[in-house]
Amino acid sequence: MSDYNTKAKEIINSHQFVQFSANWCPDCVYANSVWSKFGVSDKVHVFDIGNLSKDEQAQWRDAFESVSKIRNLPTIFVNGKAWGTESELHKYESKGTLKDELSKIGLIN
């Protein structure tokens, strides 16, 4: 297991809510806007690789994919497990159930 894999697991397991992200990623910007909309930005640990070298970004993406089996940015983790991506946020938002889903995972009251 690479050092990146070990660190990725540590990041995921040391925070209740984690978003693997990049500042250049439009879907990540959308996810961040959801956290802001619900006033929970301070509860989500955003691990942003956007300012790293391309090589480091690739290493981190490989590591998070190895750990979660998801390569998308953003990948959202809850209690150490992959919860989904921006696709879930969009799906729940379009169904009108986003607030309920975020309540179910304990992100909002």
Main sheet: strand order:
2-1-3-4
Helix vs. strand class: alpha+beta
CATH architecture: 3-Layer(aba) Sandwich
Ranges where pLDDT stays below 50 over 5 or more residues in a row are none
In round numbers, the mean pLDDT is 96
- The total count of helices amounts to 5
Please give the number of β-strands. Answer: 4
- Estimated helix fraction: 40-55%
Percent strand: 15-25%
Indicate the radius of gyration in whole angstroms.
13 Å
- Could you give the order of the helices and strands? HEHEHEEHH
Domain Glutaredoxin: 20-82
GO cellular component, one term: cytoplasm
GO biological process, one term: cellular response to oxidative stress
GO molecular function, one term: glutathione-disulfide reductase (NADPH) activity
Explain how this protein is built.
A four-stranded mixed β-sheet has the order 2-1-3-4. It contains five helices and four strands. The relative contact order is 0.20. Strand 1 (17-21), helix 2 and strand 2 (45-48) form a beta-alpha-beta unit. By secondary structure, it is of the alpha+beta class. It has one domain (3-104): 3-Layer(aba) Sandwich (Glutaredoxin), CATH 3.40.30.10. Helix 1 (3-13) crosses helix 3. Helices cover 50% and strands 17% of the residues. GO terms for molecular function: glutathione-disulfide reductase (NADPH) activity.
